[in-house]
Amino acid sequence: MGEPVLIVGSMALDSVKTPHGQARDVLGGAATYASVAASLFASPIRVVGVVGRDFPQEHLDFLASRGIDLTGVEKANGQTFRWSGAYGDDPNEAKTLDTQLNVFADFNPVLPESYRESPYVLLANIDPALQRKVLDQIRAPRLVIADTMNYWIENRRDDLVKTLSRVSMVILNDAEARSLTGERNLTVAARAIRAMGPRWALIKKGEHGAMLFGEDLTVSVPGFPLERVKDPTGAGDSFAGGFIGTLAAEGKTGERELRRALAVGAVVASFNIEEFSLERLRTLRRGDVDQRLHELRRIAHLGEGN
Amino acid sequence: MGEPVLIVGSMALDSVKTPHGQARDVLGGAATYASVAASLFASPIRVVGVVGRDFPQEHLDFLASRGIDLTGVEKANGQTFRWSGAYGDDPNEAKTLDTQLNVFADFNPVLPESYRESPYVLLANIDPALQRKVLDQIRAPRLVIADTMNYWIENRRDDLVKTLSRVSMVILNDAEARSLTGERNLTVAARAIRAMGPRWALIKKGEHGAMLFGEDLTVSVPGFPLERVKDPTGAGDSFAGGFIGTLAAEGKTGERELRRALAVGAVVASFNIEEFSLERLRTLRRGDVDQRLHELRRIAHLGEGN
User: Fold this and answer.
1) Residues linked to residue B146 through DSSP beta bridges, in sequence order
2) B301: nearest CB among A184, A259, A303
3) How big is the CA angle at A205 (ends A199 and A206), to the nearest 5 degrees?
4) pLDDT tens, residue by residue, A192-251
5) Which of A127, A219, B207, B290 sees the fewest Cβ atoms within 10 Å?
6) Contacts of A92 in chain B (CB under 8 A)
7) Which 3 state secondary structure label does DSSP give B268?
């Protein structure tokens, strides 16, 4: 199924509380969500991450069962990265209750030789200096997507800008795009971000969907309307995974493929937030995605003719 | 051009300050924006409103020059309704500096006999009791759209709910939809609103566009991406005017027409906010609308096939 995808990022055990329930020490992490989402579309998916001795073998077995290559996942002495958070009525606002970096604090992404020719690369949200370190180990990637977060924008801006000059696309949310550029208007912010290097800027807007900005290309995808968001954790990562997985499956990044990947990303994210942790992604099938993709296109359809 | 449209609402002189400049005592008011927008598509447009003795004749001449029927516009003794407001960096947030209702305080919409058979009716944001009074004077309308605002939701809720039970569609923004229903999720809020009577709920989301909810119909239109919003005043009213004008021009409210009207509304609103007051609407042509409509459809296009 297409071209190899390399995904680098966190693997975690999450504890989450939302208005619809709670979950303790469940499978989480950006690389986890993204790789499972991508595995619906493309193969092989290669993961670089680190877990502790306490990371349940069943989670690794699950990932392997999805055809995800775990050669690059280090099992370090110590505890797995743990994140604990809560959401109120607004699914866009996570309140972090506790972060224990544990083995993730010393994360040093080293790519197995078998990973070094990976044409599609997703650098999930990690220290921008580490993101560049990954790029140093890859031979001629065709598409490099970097995610980031406010922490790096505020505390490692220069480092982040250096990384951005080396990637094809950056994914961030609207608040982060504004913070990075000092521009409130997202179209202006996207232009400023693209001037830093990335050919494309993908700006996520939570329930309002996402926008992709490139030269002569602007695409807007609505959020798929859900009546209930059970757990928003991993929405952005499953979006990114579905997005890059779709592109890798096609083996192309033309306008047609980008539009489709954006819609698939929104659809996969919408499924993900229907259940805690990766529960919904575990049972999700291509047929489910295709059906909701059809519905989303109907929702976005603005009629024909003048 | 299609079926007659009746528009009832405020006519005003506005003073507005934005990061891009200011304007004093310029033409404004919900009925004004909506009727000029609607006049691009349909005819006749019939307005019911009230102005004071100070209302410049040139404004009435301008409206008449657009084929707008002013038989229902009363020229009352006193001063015209004046609104003064300011916008900061966020174009979605108007700060009202001063409101002088003047002759609008005693607005008592009386329909000329020639207006009573108007199949398309837009009740702009006025006291919901007055909105019902208008409905009492109309014979068998085919589509009645009511706009409203937080003030009525908070202070005249029972009255508003009574009005909603008699209209085909309500237009409100996301904050108002949440306030009216107590539901944060817009899909749930739209269902609750439709349970109050309206067949359709149209929820505006500022820069994020708008969503139309009906039975077996959900449509999302993105906001047209602008790099500069010069004056957000009248965005919602020009949206509503473009929307109902498009439906009246088609003489139908089928799914196809509703999708198209939603896109046209977003396009007209995007033009309107490019200049102060109605300056952009004055020179706007159908060809401009058609071109941007084409662009908006490209932006919303999510590719084909699985």
Assistant:
1) B123, B170
2) A259
3) 135
4) 999 999 999 999 999 999 999 999 999 999 999 999 999 999 999 999 999 999 999 999
5) B290
6) none
7) helix
Q: In whole angstroms, give the CA distance from residue B246 to residue B40.
A: 9
Residue A138's Cβ-count burial label (10 Å; 0-12, 13-18, 19+) is middle
Q: A208–B205: do the CB atoms touch at under 8 Å?
A: yes
The answer to whether A126 touches A106, Cβ cutoff 8 Å, is no
Q: Is B219's CB within 8 Å of A260's CB? A: no
In Å, the largest CA–CA distance within chain B is: 65
What is the mean predicted confidence (pLDDT) over A85-105? 94
Q: Between A209, A256, A304, which is nearest B303 by CB?
A: A256
Among B179, B208, B267, the strongest candidate for a mutation testing the A interface, having the largest count of A CBs within 10 A, is B208
In order along its 306 residues, chain B shows pLDDT tens digits of 799 999 999 999 999 999 999 999 999 999 999 999 999 999 999 999 999 999 999 999 999 999 999 999 999 999 999 999 999 999 989 999 999 999 999 999 999 999 999 999 999 999 999 999 999 999 999 999 999 999 999 999 999 999 999 999 999 999 999 999 999 999 999 999 999 999 999 999 999 999 999 999 999 999 999 999 999 999 999 999 999 999 999 999 999 999 999 999 999 999 999 999 999 999 999 999 999 999 999 999 999 765
Name which of B302, B304, B306 to mutate to probe chain A: the one with the most chain A Cβ atoms within 10 A of its Cβ. Answer: B302
* Strand intervals (E) in chain A: 5-8, 12-18, 21-28, 45-51, 68-75, 81-87, 94-100, 120-123, 143-147, 169-173, 200-204, 210-214, 217-221
- In the block, which residue shows the tokens 């798929």? A224
Q: Does A185 touch chain B (CB under 8 A)?
A: yes
* Per-residue pLDDT, B306: 58
Find the distance separating the first CA and the last CA of chain B, reported in whole Å: 40
Strand partners, B22: B17
Give the H or E element holding residue B94: strand B94-100
**Cβ proximity of A276 and A26 under 8 Å:** yes
Question: Number of Cβ pairs closer than 8 Å across A and B?
Answer: 103
Global pTM? 0.96
User: Is the predicted ipTM greater than 0.90, yes or no?
Assistant: yes
The two three-digit tokens of residue B175, written as one number: 């904050």
What is the distance between the alpha carbons of residues A206 and A17, in angstroms, rounded to a whole number? Answer: 19
In A, minimum Cα distance to B191 occurs at A227
Question: Which two three-digit tokens encode residue B188?
Answer: 């749930």
Query: Which of B185, B211, B256 has the CB atom closest to A303's CB atom?
Result: B256
With CB atoms and an 8 Å threshold, state whether B218 touches A225: yes
What are the DSSP calls for B179-231, one per residue?
HHHS-SSHHHHHHHHHTTS-SEEEEE-GGG-EEEEETTEEEEEPPP--S--S-
* Closest partner CB to B300 (pick from A225, A229, A302): A302
